[in-house]
Write a structure and sequence with these properties.
This protein is of the alpha+beta class. Helices cover 17% and strands 40% of the residues. It has two helices and nine strands. The strands form two sheets. A five-stranded mixed beta sheet has the order 3-9-8-5-6, with no helix packed on it. The longest helix has 19 residues. The protein is globular and about 50 Å long.
Amino acid sequence: MNRFLAGYSPLLLALTFGVFTGFFLISGVLQAAAPVRSVAVTMGDYRFSPDSISVQSGETIRLELVNTDSLTPHNFTLKAEAAGLNVDIDVSAGGTGILDITPLAPGTFEFYCNKKLPFMKSHRHRGMEGVLIVTPAGPD
């Protein structure tokens, strides 16, 4: 009898898994992750556009960074320990970058470009900065 069942073990395992998975999917126990919201951020002419980004705490957003300057490299810097964020990503001239962030706490946090040429004002001091506004997560 053991030899008989041994040949059917993978089949029985697959059927059992399928029945339980189907039960959990139908009952809503297993839920798909929420889609990540994308925000296009243009970097150029010493500015970010938009220069204000809103998100709920715990929500993941994807920043699609596009440097529209043909000669000037930029970066996206966001140092916010309170929100669990420590970001510094370079985007070359004419280049793009993708960045997923998940702020963990509400607050208003500054982001900026920290690039600087010798003997010149930094990009941040020339106006290349913005704010990430994190609101408390709403009820599910």
